[in-house]
């Protein structure tokens, strides 16, 4: 009976830590910190601008507008930065990283030794199981503490700045490239042996303290394998700008890493079914090296887009990925070897299927070199307007001549809209043109490093019904909140909302979004009239095409109702 109570108590701690703390952190982080924006007391901008104006009278479009109120309101705040969706994505990525780390050469061979300790050295099986559960709990505590430390060291504002900072993204690119090279076998990233040995000595103590240092020793000894994975997870979490992102990522990682140890401690007979250690462990390590090498270029692309260097256009980015994943497929077929690889006399069936998957993925990307949309990768690739050679017809806004082409658009030489949409890139200019043509304005708060913005542009906007409305019924103005283009000296100002000096285009639109609409999540869509008055509740990230059509139709109905009065 005592045995069952101990197991239930420890399991409760594990499950509670994973399932209660995580959602709590998610809920706390939905209150966003704004990039380059500071809040002051006494300003309730959200309540002023987020409600539908009382003087708007809905006519035939009233039902449509009422329908969209609920659907769009439920999506407000579900953008990329710090939203629950983003944090759950980080948590899942952490779980995947944890299971991948378990298959590393530094950890996998240690499983039988660790389980043997729990089953033989603990005296009784019941005590061994409880110790295994506590061991897993300590693994979780150690790695979550690391994530919390990152948050405490950098702080919320620094994490948000890192999400769009060129120097941070360049640093992340270099760090991940180093991690990838390490996984490919060029060198090992290890901690000082004296420190590791001292922790190992403390792990020989009995009781809870000994178990804690045993888990701590695992984290230290396996650092050469887990370090690059942890590093990438932390970098990815920081780049999302989420306050609790690092801790949530480490929670997922540690849970996935701890679970196998506990399962094998519960059922020691399963050890006989484990595949033997061998060269396949290094294959897993090298495979992760290829993946990290490919993912590193996403961070370089963020910088390239924000500063308009034009180095990593869409086809250049695709060319790099095609080569990387092509070599990855050849490696899995045994055509490439690295320093720590053993000879491959034959290809196993699982390895063959993975090779087929990588080579198929490579072939899938090839048409993108000539403009194919590649919707499955839209979140990762540079925007389609950066494509220099496009046979698919997805080009610059000038590909569809419209009335506003006679206007010299501000920043038109810097930004380009996808799918031939005749967009503006300056808020005031878009409002002025709206008065001329009598159409509502769709504010598209977006960003170069915004993954979900690319998804909306490549998955929702190309729909014929959506595209027709964007081209014919609206004045689209795309406002990039992370752009680094310098404002003219006479356009720079001190924000009344934050008190900060606004020097860049991105800062200007970030300040507008935060001060007018009380949020800094992207993508974020707001429909306003020619005077900048919000017509219907805003829409955040939602790939439901029908929902987006209803949102657009409600804006048209509201605009027509307001102009008819």
From TrEMBL:
<dbReference type="InterPro" id="IPR003834">
    <property type="entry name" value="Cyt_c_assmbl_TM_dom"/>
</dbReference>
<keyword id="KW-0732">Signal</keyword>
<feature type="signal peptide">
    <location>
        <begin position="1"/>
        <end position="27"/>
    </location>
</feature>
<feature type="domain" description="Cytochrome C biogenesis protein transmembrane">
    <location>
        <begin position="90"/>
        <end position="302"/>
    </location>
</feature>
<dbReference type="InterPro" id="IPR036249">
    <property type="entry name" value="Thioredoxin-like_sf"/>
</dbReference>
<dbReference type="Pfam" id="PF13899">
    <property type="entry name" value="Thioredoxin_7"/>
</dbReference>
<keyword id="KW-1133">Transmembrane helix</keyword>
<keyword id="KW-0472">Membrane</keyword>
<feature type="transmembrane region" description="Helical">
    <location>
        <begin position="166"/>
        <end position="187"/>
    </location>
</feature>
<feature type="transmembrane region" description="Helical">
    <location>
        <begin position="317"/>
        <end position="334"/>
    </location>
</feature>
<keyword id="KW-0812">Transmembrane</keyword>
<protein>
    <recommendedName>
        <fullName>Cytochrome C biogenesis protein transmembrane domain-containing protein</fullName>
    </recommendedName>
</protein>
<dbReference type="GO" id="GO:0045454">
    <property type="term" value="P:cell redox homeostasis"/>
</dbReference>
<feature type="transmembrane region" description="Helical">
    <location>
        <begin position="247"/>
        <end position="267"/>
    </location>
</feature>
<dbReference type="GO" id="GO:0015035">
    <property type="term" value="F:protein-disulfide reductase activity"/>
</dbReference>
<feature type="transmembrane region" description="Helical">
    <location>
        <begin position="208"/>
        <end position="235"/>
    </location>
</feature>
<feature type="transmembrane region" description="Helical">
    <location>
        <begin position="346"/>
        <end position="366"/>
    </location>
</feature>
<dbReference type="GO" id="GO:0017004">
    <property type="term" value="P:cytochrome complex assembly"/>
</dbReference>
<feature type="transmembrane region" description="Helical">
    <location>
        <begin position="132"/>
        <end position="154"/>
    </location>
</feature>
<keyword id="KW-0201">Cytochrome c-type biogenesis</keyword>
<feature type="transmembrane region" description="Helical">
    <location>
        <begin position="279"/>
        <end position="297"/>
    </location>
</feature>
<feature type="transmembrane region" description="Helical">
    <location>
        <begin position="87"/>
        <end position="111"/>
    </location>
</feature>
<dbReference type="Pfam" id="PF02683">
    <property type="entry name" value="DsbD_TM"/>
</dbReference>
<dbReference type="GO" id="GO:0016020">
    <property type="term" value="C:membrane"/>
</dbReference>
């Amino acid at each position: 009976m005592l045995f069952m109570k101990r197991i239930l108590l420890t399991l409760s701690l594990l499950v509670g830590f994973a399932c209660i703390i995580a959602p709590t952190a998610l809920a706390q982080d939905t209150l966003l910190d704004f990039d380059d924006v500071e809040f002051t007391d006494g300003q309730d901008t959200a309540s002023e601008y987020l409600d539908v104006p009382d003087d708007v009278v809905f006519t035939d479009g009233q039902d449509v507008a009422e329908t969209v109120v609920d659907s769009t309101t439920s999506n407000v705040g579900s953008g990329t930065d710090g939203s629950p969706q983003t944090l759950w994505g980080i948590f899942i990525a952490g779980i995947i990283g944890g299971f991948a780390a378990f298959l590393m050469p530094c950890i996998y061979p240690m499983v039988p030794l660790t389980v043997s300790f729990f089953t033989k050295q603990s005296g009784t099986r019941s005590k061994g199981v409880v110790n295994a559960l506590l061991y897993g709990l300590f693994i979780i505590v150690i790695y979550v503490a690391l994530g919390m430390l990152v948050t405490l060291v950098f702080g919320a504002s620094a994490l948000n700045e890192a999400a769009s900072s060129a120097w941070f993204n360049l640093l992340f690119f270099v760090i991940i490239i180093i991690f990838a090279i390490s996984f490919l076998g060029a060198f090992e990233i290890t901690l000082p042996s004296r420190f590791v040995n001292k922790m190992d000595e403390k792990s020989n103590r009995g009781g809870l303290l000994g178990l804690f240092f045993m888990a701590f020793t695992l984290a230290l000894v396996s650092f050469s394998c887990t370090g690059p994975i942890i590093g990438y997870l932390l970098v990815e979490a920081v780049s999302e700008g989420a306050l609790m992102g690092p801790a949530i990522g480490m929670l997922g990682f540690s849970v996935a890493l701890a679970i196998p140890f506990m399962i094998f401690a519960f059922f020691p007979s399963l050890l006989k079914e484990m595949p033997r250690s061998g060269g396949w462990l290094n294959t897993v390590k090298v495979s992760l090296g290829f993946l990290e090498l490919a993912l590193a270029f996403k961070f370089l692309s963020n910088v390239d887009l924000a500063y308009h260097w034009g180095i990593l256009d869409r086809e250049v980015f695709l060319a790099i990925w095609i080569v990387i994943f092509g070599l990855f497929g050849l490696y899995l077929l045994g055509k490439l070897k690295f320093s720590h690889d053993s000879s491959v006399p034959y290809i196993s069936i699982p390895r063959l299927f993975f090779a087929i998957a990588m080579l198929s993925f490579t072939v899938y990307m090839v048409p993108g070199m000539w403009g194919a949309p590649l919707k499955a990768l839209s979140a990762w690739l540079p925007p389609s307007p950066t494509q220099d050679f496009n046979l698919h017809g997805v080009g610059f806004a000038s590909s569809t001549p419209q009335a506003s082409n006679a206007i010299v658009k501000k920043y038109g030489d810097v930004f380009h809209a996808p799918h031939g949409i005749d967009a503006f890139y300056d808020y005031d200019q878009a409002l002025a043109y709206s008065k001329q043509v009598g159409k509502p304005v769709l504010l598209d708060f977006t960003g170069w490093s915004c993954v979900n913005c690319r998804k909306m542009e490549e998955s929702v906007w190309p729909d014929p019904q959506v595209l027709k409305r964007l081209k014919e019924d609206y004045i689209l103005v795309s406002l990039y909140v992370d752009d680094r283009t310098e404002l003219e000296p006479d356009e720079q100002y001190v924000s009344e909302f934050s008190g900060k000096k606004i020097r860049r285009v991105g800062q200007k639109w970030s300040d507008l979004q935060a001060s007018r609409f009380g949020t800094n999540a992207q993508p974020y869509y707001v429909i306003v009239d020619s005077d900048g008055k919000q017509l219907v509740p805003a829409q955040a990230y939602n790939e439901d095409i029908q929902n987006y059509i209803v949102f657009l139709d409600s804006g048209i109905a509201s605009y027509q109702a307001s102009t008819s009065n």
